[in-house]
Design goal:
Blueprint lengths: L17 H6 L4 H11 L2 E4 L5 H18 L10 E5 L6 H13 L4 E5 L2 E3 L1 H7 L3 E4 L4 E4 L10 H24 L5 H7 L4 E4 H6 L5 E2 L11
Parallel strand pairs: 1-2, 2-3, 3-5, 4-6, 5-8
Antiparallel strand pairs: 6-7
Helix pairs in contact: 3-4, 4-5
Amino acid sequence: MNKQNRDIDVFEIDLDETLLEAKKGFSLEDIIYLNDLKERKLVINEDINQYSVSDAIANILKFNKQDKGKPVEERQPILLTITSNGGSVTAGFELIDIIQNSKTPVYTINIGWQYSMGFLIGLAGHKRYCSPNATFLMHDGSTVVWDSGAKAQDQMEFNKRTEERIKKYIISRSKLTEEEYDSKLRVEWYLFADEAKEKGFTDFIIGEDVDMDEII
């Protein structure tokens, strides 16, 4: 189902009648997607860009609208599974802002890998889960600077300001000290689940701290 067609009245569809849905032209993939939406399950399994985050952003906003006026503790959490090599910082922080400002809890889940911008999005969850062999990557990312000398300097200055914001964000969402962050910034820092939990990058390891039932 392309994203243009995903804005149909999915919340009004009886998702238990899958044969009826098939007759309406839905593929098996569409039906799985709609059933996941009914259970507030969202998935990002690609590089981070404006297109890949737009579906998660739209649905987090929809679920908050559905829950408007309901106490936070009575709201059904949104389960966001992220498997990504990273990508656009601006698109990633657009989703991070929505997650952090969502009154309906958003739980982020890593059952594969969360690298670079995928790692930063995973940090944003109100609760963070991962599988025992999930991996994480924190690094300084990559930047391309081009244009005239003066404009290139402007770009470099903006990149420095962006790096500083990322630093504050990571420290605020983990157990890292500023000194430890600075020591790891220029390296490819890969971590397994137990190491990520020790540093405060994730909260719960599935099968050790919580049962699978908590995220399905």
